[in-house]
Design a protein that fits this description.
Blueprint: H1 2-18, H2 33-47, E1 56-58, E2 64-66, E3 71-79, E4 85-95, E5 99-104, H3 107-110, H4 130-134, E6 146-147, E7 152-153, E8 160-166, E9 172-177, E10 182-187, E11 190-195, E12 202-203, H5 209-215, E13 245-251, E14 256-259, E15 278-280, E16 302-306, E17 311-316, E18 322-329, E19 346-353, E20 358-365, H6 368-379, E21 392-394, H7 402-414, E22 421-424, H8 445-454, E23 458-462, E24 466-468, H9 472-480, E25 495-497, E26 500-504, H10 510-520, E27 533-537, E28 557-558, E29 562-563, H11 564-567, H12 571-586, E30 594-596, E31 608-610, H13 618-633, E32 639-640, H14 652-662, E33 668-670, H15 688-701, H16 703-716, E34 721-722, H17 724-727, E35 741-743, E36 748-750, E37 760-765, E38 770-773, E39 779-781, E40 784-789, E41 797-800, E42 803-807, E43 823-828, E44 835-842, H18 848-851, E45 855-863, E46 866-873, H19 878-882, E47 888-894, E48 904-908, E49 911-921, E50 924-928, E51 938-942
Parallel strand pairs: 21-22, 21-33, 22-23, 23-27, 27-30, 30-31, 31-32, 43-47
Antiparallel strand pairs: 1-3, 2-3, 3-4, 4-5, 5-20, 6-8, 7-8, 8-9, 9-10, 10-11, 11-13, 12-13, 13-19, 14-16, 15-18, 16-17, 17-20, 18-19, 24-26, 25-26, 28-29, 34-35, 35-36, 36-41, 37-40, 38-39, 38-41, 42-43, 44-45, 45-46, 46-51, 47-50, 48-49, 48-51, 49-50
Helix pairs in contact: 7-8, 10-12, 14-15
The structure holds 1-deoxynojirimycin (NOJ).
Amino acid sequence: MKLEFVSIVATFALFRSVFGVKRELFKTCEQNGFCHRNRHLANAISNKHGSYSSPYSVDETSIRISEEVSAIEGSIMKKLPNGKAVELPFTIEVLKSDNIRLTIDEKERSDPKSLRVADKRFKSRRFNEASKYALKGEPEISVNAKLTKESITDKSTGEKYLSIIYGDESEYEAQITLSPFKITVYYHGQPEIILNDRNFFNIEHWRTQDQQASELSPEETDYGTFKDEFKDSQGDHLPFGPESIGVDVSFIGYDKVFGIPEHADTFSLKDTTNDDPYRLFNVDIFEYETQSKFPMYGSIPFMVAQKKSATAGLFWINAADTYVDIKKGSPAQSNPDQIVLTSEKSTKTHWFSEAGILDLIIMVDKSPLAINKKYGELSGNPELPQLFTLGYHQCRWNYNDVDDVLDVSEKFDNFEIPYDVIWLDIEYTENKKYFTWKKGLFDDHVEMNKKLAETGRNLVAIIDPHIKTDYQVSNDIEKQGLGIKNSDNDDTYHGHCWPGESVWIDTFNPKSKAYWNKLFANNTDFSGDETNLHIWNDMSEPSVFSGPETTAPKDIVHYGGWEHRSVHNAYGLTFHEATYDAMSKRYVNKRPFILTRAYYAGSQRSAAMWSGDNKSKWEFLKISLPMALTSQVVGMPFTGSDVGGFFGDPSSELLTRWYQAGIWYPFFRGHAHIDSKRREPYIAGEPYTSIMRDAIRLRYSLLPVFYTGFHHASITNAPIITPLFYSNPENEDCYEIEDEFFVADSGLLVKPVTQEGATSVSIYIPDEKPYFDYHTHELIQGKGSHDLQAELEQIPILMQGGHIFSRKDRYRRSSKLMKYDPYTLVVALDEEGSAKGSLYIDDGETFDYKKDDDFVYVDFAIKDNKLQSSVNVGKQTPFTELLDKVKVEKIIIVGKDISFSSSAKVSQNGENWEAETIGINNNAFIIRNPAVAINKSWTIELN
Ligand code: NOJ
């Protein structure tokens, strides 16, 4: 056994570096028991063309309706072929912000007394805590829902249903059909979402192997119910037998659906009829392929559907292995499997998870931004990061020692390329023992970090969840029972990862979290009194080289007796939350920066994420854009891909284009595999180095735009890079656009070059507003495609008329050194000569903006030739006072017919003066040094 195990690990380690993705390591849907069964059931039901009779009905006598808590409770009964019935208690609640939440449990497993047989090693109930991680807290209940007192009979169909009317203007209705169980959500009288429209609803109830034959319906199969048939299942003993949950969800009139990351696939999700479903199962998928529904490192089970008149969202709160099938098309009346409620095109989805309770939230609203906001209210908005985290990050596996780190840092300065963070990968440790520093190479790490801090720079070091056996940390974990347990729930689970044999910290356990806290405290081996060390949490799917599908066996056990099967997708989140917590104690009142590879719904509250091990190929540059856009839709906007590609060596052209695209990633980091050649931007030589430097400097000059965007995201969950349909939901032509985006709400429209040898791009303009070239200020107008020049040194960027944004144009070595630099305002006028914008400023590091209102928020507006800044100072503090010295040094105004030509009369603080103007230059009107302070309101009259 031991030998066999070693050889598996050795083989794995070998192909990790030699070959591409090993598909055979991962289960196909066909090979994954619960996927196989749920698809089988769905196909059998579809093939019955309407003659299938669902076994699931609400027991009318069980219904309890409460207006006070806007909830309906009761039981769904599942009729079994042997005449018995299984009770499935449900609740339907109307949440604040007009969302419907449905939960369905299984009585027998939720009541320990009535459990016939339980495997004592595990908690017997279905996992009902995914919402603890996916949601920021218990959601508030709506106060304006009207619930029917008793069931209503539909005159035309004879079906009985319950009705809930909700929304400020009673614009929503949810109808709960009793038999078969079904929920239809209406918005302004239109059906939007139907749950169990196709009768795929399925709760695999608890049964013994002996009972199974008499309890399976003819449409079901017993494939993989008590034995994992996958060749590399490594003895998963399925202690509860089959326990999956599933339901179909139809989006009526919605042609396009988005979300459910992580997949290296198109932005608009594809039909899966002739393919595997999209799988949500956090795995270490090295050398992943593009255009694939394969699972990746993270999972957010949230889907958004878009049509002209509305946006809908489905939040599937389950942390187990999950699949989503998607079927598109207009309803064909001949096929009863199709929706007949409307003649419009629709998208029909089918969701199923391997374990846990069924818990989902349905949202419908007028726009994508409104859905983002609703999701943020439930799951939490992304945390406002420190400003430096929006600068450039320089990483590679590995910088070898202190001298290497300082040498790279110095070279950036020599080439006048700004950067904010340098990263250390696993080799900085002593034999991959986290919380140690490699002797002889990183002895002076504290000094090194102090040197970096002198120029405002930061260091990020990697800490993974696998802990090498036989040293202090793993000994503590084993002794104190803080690791994930083996499937007998008696001893700590052992597996293999970078350090060889390892244990995994179980961050579901509060005691493990307390221990994790101590490891980061300032008095351990990992200490240093600097405040510029931050953490990278990698391999947290968890990646287990010796495990099935490169991850942990599903039947190992977590704190509280939960099987790994039920909590898998949330493990990475608990890990980076533990690190966040530890770092917030290490540096009091500093916003921690954690980068995670594995993520789940809710990760946005405490981490940034990147798309893992991509390749130095054009197709990976291309796919990074839809992947980043998807993250914006599902509330995890702080994301990016390894610039340059992780595996391989990019050509200088690819690297340059990647930097030009990467400056728009919310998280902007260059990274490379240990076998890749060095490729810091100063290495390529001219003209590449200068072009990359200019691109990075452009990012730095736009940091106020990104930071203001993150401020808005932290309040409303608005995207940082915004898909085109967000501002043009009525324009269906832009729904699928995945290679262009707006930058937050600045009106900057960007189309990065992702084509080898390109000298121009075709950019799609989604509306009739005037647009101006970012560099030449030339007017480009007209909905549709336009050609833009894109020689190697050119980044195609347009400015949409109607916006004002702020820049900081002076080159500094890091963002910290730009703190008190003056601003340049760019005003792009709309047809009426008007524009608006905003700017958010705080100390960029602490939580004082939250605790003490220590921030400044500026609204800019121009109308009738009067430019105005209205300042809201959260509170007068030493910092907001200091901003007195921060001035606007330049204002650039572009517009179609600029009527003013010479004078600019400035007023601020009761004083008036005339600012110097340069008239029209390069298609723009320029005001030189208006000298207004940024923290007080002002006006400028233009004539
Ligand atoms: C896998 C990560 O995805 C990659 O970025 C990192 O360099 C290696 N682990 C080594 O830590």
